[in-house]
Amino acid sequence: MGVFLVFASSCKKDENVPVLSTMEVTEINTTTARSGGNITDDGGATVTFRGVCWSTNENPTINNSKTEDGTGAGSFTSNITDLELNTTYYLRAYAINSAGIGYGSAMSFTTRQEPIMSSFTDSRDGKVYQTVVIGNQVWMAENLAYAPSSGNYWAYDNDDANVEVYGYLYDWETAMNVCPAGWHLPSDEEWTELTEYLADNAGGKLKATGTIEAGTGLWKDPNTGATNESGFAGLPGGNLFNENEVFTGVGDVGLWWSSTGIGLNFARGLLLIYYSGEPIDYNTSNLDGFSVRCIKD
Questions:
Q1: Rounded to an integer, what distance in angstroms lies between the CA atom of residue 242 and that of residue 244?
Q2: DSSP string computed for 121-185
Q3: Beta strands in the chain (DSSP E)
Q4: Is 216 helix (H, G, I), strand (E, B) or coil?
Q5: In the chain, which end has fewer C-beta atoms inside a 10 angstrom radius, N or C?
Q6: Are strands 49-55 and 74-80 parallel, antiparallel or unpaired?
Q7: Per the structure, how many domains does the chain have?
Q8: pLDDT tens-digit readout, 206-231
Q9: CB within 8 Å of 252: residues ≥ 6 apart
Q10: Distances (CA, A) of 295 to 51, 127, 178, 183, 210
Q11: 166 and 228: one domain?
Q12: Which residues of the chain have pLDDT under 70?
């Protein structure tokens, strides 16, 4: 009998629940986010299910909402969907083997709210602009279309019909002084605060949706990443290379001035382009023509 018990004990498989960690929650939008996990120990048995689970309660389980993201140990990515906007959730990774369920640490995150839109009337010419709250900033949600009494500014292709869609293009010196009272040309630091707040795919969140080819927008196809989740509604107004007096880029790029100069002849701006969801810091001659978005003081 003693020999049999020793033999039986030696054949018993030593299993424990998996050990894992929860990845940081990123790409948090109004109804979606991204996370995942890393299984560092499968507990001596194959992981048959893994993913993340979430709830508005502090300790979510697989009985709540969850993803299923393959099998086995190692790291995995989870796409979280069907969230409610402006809501705080708790999320943790899970992994299941034949011994049971292992969980990573719980993390909290809050989905974004819908853009808070309003309007502003420029008393100088009576034009009404849409505005939007993004993080701690208030932006005009349209390009400026004010014709100042002095300075250098242009309608794209010298066609006034383009002003209705894209606003004017201004050289940097004019742009520095063209915003209405209570508003100003954003600094490079203020542009950076905006894009860092929007985080991943910030350019896509700033771009208006749709494409020219589809007849639903003004961006060239494929308008990569465009969601306009921020409400900024960035349009591809192009620019003027003043040195050659050439208008270019409408449909392809949106370029906006910052108030940050570089030396005597250059200044920084922000560029959005049809084939990328990432914003680009852009340096150019301060004689060129860019669009203007004003930010509230």
A1: 5
A2: E-TTT--EEEEEEETTEEEESS------SSS-EE-GGG-THHHHHH--EE-HHHHTT-SPTTEEP
A3: 19-22, 33-41, 49-55, 65-66, 74-80, 88-97, 100-103, 107-110, 116-121, 128-134, 137-140, 153-154, 169-170, 183-184, 237-241, 246-250, 253-262, 266-273, 280-285, 295-296
A4: coil
A5: N
A6: unpaired
A7: 2
A8: 999 999 999 999 999 999 999 999 99
A9: 220, 236, 238, 273, 274
A10: 41, 16, 12, 5, 25
A11: yes
A12: 1-14
Is 139 found in the same domain as 89? no
CATH for 71 = 2.60.40.10
- 144 and 250: one domain? yes
Per the CB < 8 A criterion, the answer to whether 103 and 19 are in contact is no
Q: Which domain holds residue 74?
A: 2-110
Two tokens at 28? 């948090």
Predicted TM-score (pTM) of this structure: 0.74
Q: Are residues 154 and 262 in the same domain?
A: yes
> Which of 241, 253, 286 minimizes the C-alpha distance to 267?
286
Name the residue with tokens 């509230």.
296
On whether both 167 and 183 belong to a single domain, the answer is yes
